[in-house]
Amino acid sequence: MSLLEVKGLKASYGVVPALHQVDFNVNAGEVVGILGHNGMGKTTTLRSIMGFVKVTDGDIVFEGQSLKGLSVNARARRGLGLVPQGRMIFPTLTVRENLESGIATGKQPMEPIIDEMLSLFPRLERLLDRAGGALSGGEQQLLALARCLCRKPKLMLLDEPTEGIQPSIIDEISDTLKQLAKTTDITIVLVEQNLDFITGLSDRVYAISNGVLDRQIPEEQLKDSRAVSEFMGFVT
Amino acid sequence: MDYVLIILLEMLRAVSWLVLLASGLAIIFGMMRVINFAHGEFLMLGGYITIMTHNNGVPLWISMLILAPLTVGIFGILVERLVIRHLYGRIIDSLLATWGLSLLMIGGVTLVFGNTVQGVSTPFGAVSIGEYSIPLYNFVIIGFAAAIMLATWAVLKFTKVGLVARATMQNPDMAETLGVRTTWVYMATFGIGSAVTGLAGGLLAPLTGVVPSMGVNFVGQSFITVITGGASMIAGTLSASTLLGTVSQGVTFASGPVYGDAALLLTALVLLRVLPQGITGRIFKKSL
Questions:
Q1: What's the CATH number where A227 sits?
Q2: How many other CB atoms are there within 10 angstroms of residue A74's CB atom?
């Protein structure tokens, strides 16, 4: 049984349709990528799964149960985590407080989890007392990942984690996610435009175009970013 | 020397008075960006509960410190559930709805208790400083104003609840993705803000007495303090109360209470002209 099944999903912003047909599934422990140009529905797909966007048809099934009617926070408590586009760091909270905000609703002690995150993201250690809003984009991205991971999500939704980030930190993010995927049972759905990043990290990649997601990029093409570009129509 | 001490104490009382009046409003506006135009009537309700329960045999301190905040807090939660939660993000609509609520409360209380001033005697009496005397109850006002500010700061800074509240205040959508039930946070915030207002109403009742329309006298000072303070809930309330309270009380001593009130308004006007985002929009920006 898949951990996540998205079946015939249609979604809209008010009366404006955004997703026309989204079908894909994610097995436990997989990293699944979704690739597409700007404005094709990548972010809307993740936001629909998280519960931010009104779903007009279809269903999202997580661990065998429909998420229909569940609020965003209820989905989060079921085990979904989101690292949103733009990071959405709490700007006046310190780095430590941002991390603690990921655990504050639970009963578990905070310190061991924060120590675990600092070992995964050592760059954050010297920034612990700095305000989240004062960090660079790359540091904020690391913090957003760590904050999400504090909750130990079963499924992490990653929205363009490389957007506007310096290359050295992109490598750091990629290495950390690879290590996580190898050493834990976390499942990741990754939305990206960065071909190297997505193909280097994902077990499977879907293509999305004009709000329609139903094509999986053939596995043999995944290791060749040029072949993926051709599949997506990025190059002619 | 005694006169200077009296002036300083009176200034401190005036600052504390503004802190008490504005704290509940600052919590609700600072955390939720909801303008509760019925704030004055929440104060009035706290005052009535104190006086009515005390006149019916309940010890004054229980009426003032337990029953008034508890009742107004529960009333606030009901108002949030029935009215405010439908109006989040609609600042003008929430202002109009709470204005309507204030009129309803004034009418309701007038219907039940009539339109006459009721009161209780101020506890503790007075203490002499040289040839002057000052009510001991002033120190109660000063103590509770400090305690409310300190408790609010400590809860926000050192508790999980405070952390969740601050995160929700900054980005409710993100807080939701971290499992925070933001609707509960808003409900609790409105309830706590209302309870603090009820406590303030209870504490002020022995000084001012109660009458259904008394809220009108306080709502202006409360709003001026909160707006002048700016976005930071505690630093804003404290800095604005200190500035406005000191100026108005200083002028009151020099020229009388009418000039004192005028000085308060004038100071707020000049300050908002110079600092449109309030004091904490420019200084103490990162404070709570």
A1: 3.40.50.300
A2: 15
| pLDDT tens-place values along chain A, 236 residues long | 789 999 999 999 888 888 999 999 999 999 999 988 888 889 999 999 999 998 999 999 999 999 999 999 999 999 999 999 988 999 999 999 999 998 888 888 889 999 999 999 999 999 999 999 999 888 999 999 999 999 999 999 999 988 888 888 888 888 888 888 888 889 999 998 888 888 888 889 998 888 898 788 887 777 776 777 777 766 55
CA distance A105 to chain B (A): 6
Residues of chain B with Cβ-Cβ distance to A105 below 8 Å are 160, 164, 178-180
Contact between chains at B166 and A90 (C-beta distance less than 8 A): yes
d(CA A12, nearest CA chain B) in Å: 18
Residues of A in contact with B235 (CB under 8 A): none
Count: domains in chain A? 1
Instruction: Give the number of other CB atoms < 10 A from CB of residue A188.
Output: 23
Which residues of B touch chain A, with CB atoms under 8 Å apart? 160, 163-164, 166-167, 170-171, 173-182, 286
Query: How many other CB atoms are found less than 10 A from the CB of residue A26?
Result: 22
Question: Domain segments of chain B: what residues?
Answer: 2-219
ipTM of predicted complex: 0.89
- Token duo for residue A67: 């998420």
A210-236 residue pLDDT tens:
889 878 888 777 777 677 777 776 655
What digits encode the pLDDT tens for the residues B246-270? 999 889 888 888 898 899 899 999 9
How crowded is the C-beta side of B46, counted as CA atoms within 13 Å?
36
Indicate the pTM of the whole model: 0.87
Of B160, B179, B286, the CB nearest to A92: B286
Domain extent at residue A201: 4-88+153-232
A212-216 vs B126-129, strand pairing mode:
unpaired
Chain B: residue nearest A87 by CA? B174
| Of A64, A62, A80, A60, nearest in space to A72 by CA | A80
* CB-closest option in B167, B170, B177 to A82: B177
pLDDT cut 90: percent of chain B above it? 61
List the one residue out of B120, B113, B141, B114 whose CA is nearest residue B54: B120
Mutant choice from B157, B176, B178 vs A, greatest count of A C-beta within 10 A: B178
Report the DSSP pairing between strands A187-192 and A31-35: parallel
Contact residues, chain B, for A93 at CB < 8 Å: 163, 166-167, 170
